[in-house]
Amino acid sequence: MSKRILISDIAKSLGVSVTTISFILNGKAKEKRISDALTNRVLEYVKKVGYKPNQLAQSLRTGQTKILGLLVEDISNLFFANIAKHIEESSYASGYHLLYCSMGNDTVKAKELIQLFYDRQVDGFIITPTEGLEDVVALLLKNNVPVVLFDRYIPQVETNYVVSDNFNGAFRATKHLLENKDNRRIGFVSLYSDQTQMRDRMDGYMKALDQYQRQAYIKKIQIDEQEDIAMAQIFEFIEDNKLDAVLFATNYLAITGLKVNKKYGKLPAMVAFDDHTLFKLHEPAISVVSQRIETIAEELVKVLLRQIRNPQADVKHIVVPCDLKIRDSSTAKIK
Amino acid sequence: MSKRILISDIAKSLGVSVTTISFILNGKAKEKRISDALTNRVLEYVKKVGYKPNQLAQSLRTGQTKILGLLVEDISNLFFANIAKHIEESSYASGYHLLYCSMGNDTVKAKELIQLFYDRQVDGFIITPTEGLEDVVALLLKNNVPVVLFDRYIPQVETNYVVSDNFNGAFRATKHLLENKDNRRIGFVSLYSDQTQMRDRMDGYMKALDQYQRQAYIKKIQIDEQEDIAMAQIFEFIEDNKLDAVLFATNYLAITGLKVNKKYGKLPAMVAFDDHTLFKLHEPAISVVSQRIETIAEELVKVLLRQIRNPQADVKHIVVPCDLKIRDSSTAKIK
DNA sequence: CATTTTTGCTAAAAGGTTTTAATAGTGGTC
DNA sequence: GACCACTATTAAAACCTTTTAGCAAAAATG
Predict the structure, then answer these.
(1) Which candidate, A71, A161, A152, places its Cα nearest to that of A116?
(2) Cβ-based contacts of A227 with chain B (< 8 Å)
(3) Can you give the CATH number for the domain in which A148 is found?
(4) With 70 as the cut, is the pLDDT of residue A2 above it?
(5) Are residues A199 and A227 in the same domain?
(6) In a designed cystine with A208, which of A169, A175, A181, A320 is the match (CB 3.0 to 4.6 A)?
């Protein structure tokens, strides 16, 4: 760690030019016809003194930072936290580091951060596109910056994305609820949101209902709603429609649903989207449509690096299957 | 965003030298006696064309990257995820970005990452020092790299840290359990770990017991233990000692404890360390010693930036109080 | 043996800033 | 009018790499 040693120091010590050393260190010895003898001598010396090139100088010259920008909606959400962990692991394995940020629902901050990360010349972006980010993502693409979206995508912007098969996840969950003859009236609790994952989950729910020729009951909650208001709304929704079962579109909504249960002592059969420690332990345990977090993370890094290495590469759309985990909440009524 | 504009472009357009512009942009106009007229002309033009200095070149020259390295033990742990979120917000507010990583219990990876972040010339480090990191942290300090530790500290290394008042948290939690006359035998479930937060929590537990002149029952679990084995151990610990109440040293252990409850249908009164969504919803709701995550995050960034701005600054040790949140699990026996 | 090709290596430019040291001009002092 | 101090600005060095373009010597070619 001590005092930084420079490539020119090595050149001086070894009596060779800086260029030669640079070539050797960048694996161009053969190509540049540096003799094996010299190559080895340099390599050994470099190892001995523990020289490491200055990343900043390197990046300045090459334009590559070996840093990826990770922008997630909310890192304190277990789904994103887990994915972030695996993204970091995958990137690390490929020699990339992560400049990270949690955007919340602050579009202004999100745009600013994308701009700032762009200014820092990150080599690529991994983004959960929250609403209002369409144009800035489009701008990135126009500037040929490698981007991969996840959790949801932007239909009008043709770029890489990795998402779960939300449609089939919701479809199978709803069908599972429908298979129980007692569940006559099945509701769907979602968010006011145009995002694709929400739309797909709703479509999956609808298709299952259509197959069984049942009526749909859909309640959307404001994204930033106070929790107690959301609780009241969910309670009302269930009561008024005498619902037998509910599919919750996100784990956060499902947790709010459970709080309704705790407060009003009433909740129908249910399935939640995204797994959570809580769901396994809850009495009864909550059935879920779980996403393959590790796979998603790996694909994200893979797709992004592919694009970085080959800017001409064609756009990839990857859809990862969901897993329906059936627990007690959908087989026996809650309380 | 389009084509990058350089400081030299501006110089040419305005017919002034690059130096002058650099001085003005870095707020040294007065000091360097640049006339107000020119200063304004430059500032306006810069704004008009939207020039932004190339961060890499800037960093290369100044040695400052405006990037902090954040190394947490496990980002998929809600406690760390929440803290990471607030650290990011605080840093962002001060114009710093975060290079992030989740270390797990992989000491080799952790050391390598610290080295890599150091090579990238991050301006400072925020670290949860997992075991085996003592020497590398000491090395950072020897190299005058600003560092602040959190969650726990390294006693033999004199550096900044921000931790919760684990001792008093555990002390008050234990005392709270002791105040209930039914709780004769109170146990403590912790990890095999020399880390300070664990030691302090145990000491707090001990002191409360001493005050009441009660026997201590302490069970330590291996950090990487399989969950089912840990469950069996906890079950045995409670059964064999006929415990009336248990204080769990981490939220993860407490969750394992709850799983014991679910499986064996038996668990005494309890208090957990660190809050979790799960605990509020559990039936009965779990009492906790909760940490002031937002305060900790803010202090971390504050202390680190202080050190970065003034390398001579004296070392800060900040201890943030914990909050005892009494819920049902410690007032009525579970089940 | 004169010419071309290949081998093995290097000087210098480029990447885009900040900062040091210097310069030309102006006004004041004795 | 010689000297000094101050004002307003700038040329060039520095930060540390990578890469382009090129050179001298050795080997190959006819």
Answers:
(1) A71
(2) none
(3) 3.40.50.2300
(4) no
(5) yes
(6) A175
